[in-house]
Design a protein that fits this description.
This protein is an alpha/beta fold. The chain has 17 helices and 19 strands.
């Protein structure tokens, strides 16, 4: 028997053995490292029911390789430390800084201090900017007035009229000697074609993509995106929230699809923490350290808000935002108000909401009536009964689609930022939120939420029970993929 004949006899056995080996190794990795047991079960089942395909899918979407890359990058040098702490108070003792009127939030402040290991910064001023109509002019005015530095991080930066206004302002800043750094998520940069990245680079604006995915060796990180929105000008004026750079955010101008959203202008000591969050992402992407007074000037207190950044991501900040949310829900005594475009919480958050409602806390969840992602909307609807039956209330706001993200507790504590109430934000994406202590600012947030509820329609448990069997099955099937939405 010739060599060819022997190979023909052997190769099927070799293929089976290789497939078994790959499936065993992949399953073992899922069993050892997937923290959610349900996710591990689904992946293991997929690996064995779809040999090779399941393993390839797990390697592409199931493995968190960002930690490995972060360790490799930072392993060549010390951990990035942009500036020394701005106050001497230890993060876990930050509650001591709160005034008497906020004394009952001391335990929450200390708990979150232990979670994020950052101190609360007193003396901040925050301004709510509604839609791009208010936010974009303020942001452009700050960039056009920049004298020393501008950092700019966003998920989506469209190549449209408003995108070009921002690109032009950034280019002019570079031309007059301002140090500018722009970081755009690689997936978000492709929401318009051609990408705005080439325009920015033609204007000599230092621009980088976060975790590019086109190269074959980078496909394993395609599911891990930078969803943060950060702008810091001269180290003194900051902007953050959930708003991307898109024509549709300006409701007073024509657009294919209008989107409501909120951004926040921030002044005061906490701006340094916004800068640190950007600098950490920039260092991760490029290896360049942003240091010096033009990035981190001395900051003075200028308002009444006590604030702290809450970074979230699949790296060293894994699940910290979820813990902070759970801590806030547990501290609520009277009211919890949630505004989110995507409400696909896991069972731990559902339980926390239900426990709060059963304690007598009024829990309101405000979402858009028509979602821009139908599949996510179906998965969300499949979960509504779980909170409605325990006393939480759900409100649906009319068009245009509302992309705003707010969490308000007892009209005293507010959380703003980029994160949604879904697995993608709480486990996969890099997110940045800001927790704010202060009744004056909280009252402004409450007014925004009240206005949304005034035009919203309340959903009842009876209404959900009356849905047809076909709709319930559709939503239930979508819910099965909730850990990956």
């Amino acid at each position: 028997m010739g060599l060819t004949d022997r190979l023909q006899d052997i190769w099927p056995h070799m293929a089976v053995a290789l497939t078994l080996f790959i499936s065993i190794v992949t399953s073992g990795n899922a069993i050892l490292y997937k923290r959610d047991s349900r996710s591990a079960v689904i992946w293991v089942a997929f690996v064995w029911l779809a040999p090779i395909l399941g393993s390839v899918a797990y390697l592409a979407f199931g493995v968190n390789r960002v930690r490995l890359r972060a360790r490799a990058l930072r392993g060549r040098s010390s951990w990035y430390q942009p500036v020394p702490p701005t106050i001497s108070c230890a993060p876990e003792h930050s509650g001591d800084l709160l005034p008497k009127e906020l004394a009952r939030l001391k335990s929450l402040a200390e708990f979150i201090g232990k979670v994020v290991e950052k101190p609360i910064e007193p003396g901040n001023r925050l301004k709510i900017l509604v839609n791009g109509d208010e936010a974009y002019p303020e942001m452009l005015e700050a960039i056009r007035g920049a004298k020393k530095s501008t950092t700019f991080c966003t998920y989506i930066f469209d190549n449209d009229d408003w995108g070009h206004k921002f690109a032009d302002a950034l280019g002019r800043a570079v031309a007059r000697g301002v140090a500018v750094r722009v970081l755009i998520d690689d997936a978000g940069a492709r929401y318009s074609w051609p990408s705005i990245v080439s325009t920015l680079r033609d204007l000599d604006v230092p621009t980088e993509r976060f975790l590019p995915t086109f190269a074959p060796w980078r496909l394993m990180t395609m599911n891990l995106r930078n969803h943060r929105k950060i702008v810091v000008v001269d180290g003194t004026i900051g902007f953050t929230g959930g708003m991307n750079i898109r024509q549709g955010h300006v409701l007073n101008e024509p657009a294919k699809r209008h989107v409501q959203d909120l951004n926040f202008k921030i002044e005061g000591p906490v701006v340094a923490q916004l800068q640190e969050a950007f600098a950490d992402d920039w260092f991760f992407t490029t290896g360049e350290r942003l240091q010096g007074a033009h990035w981190y000037p001395a900051l003075r207190e200028c308002g009444s808000v006590f604030a702290r950044t809450l970074a979230a991501g699949p790296d060293k900040h894994f699940e910290k935002l979820r813990w902070a949310i759970q801590g806030a829900l547990a501290c609520a005594e009277k009211r919890i108000q949630i505004v989110t475009p995507y409400f696909v919480p896991d069972q731990s958050l559902i339980s926390a909401l239900n426990v709060s409602a059963m304690r007598g806390v009024c829990v309101d969840i405000i979402m858009p009536a028509v979602n821009n992602l139908p599949f996510v909307d179906w998965a969300s609807r499949a979960m509504w009964w779980q909170v409605l039956e325990r006393g939480c209330r759900i409100w649906l706001t009319p068009a245009p689609f509302d992309h705003s993200k707010l969490l308000l507790v007892d009209d005293a504590w507010a959380m703003i930022g980029s994160a949604n109430w879904d697995t993608r934000s709480l486990r996969l994406n890099f997110e940045l939120n800001l927790e704010c202590y202060g009744r004056e600012f909280a009252s402004e947030v409450a007014a925004i939420i009240h206005a949304k509820m005034q035009s919203a329609r309340e959903v009842t448990l009876a209404e959900m029970d009356r849905r047809s069997l076909s709709l319930r099955l559709r939503d239930g099937l979508a819910r099965l993929l909730a850990p990956y939405l």
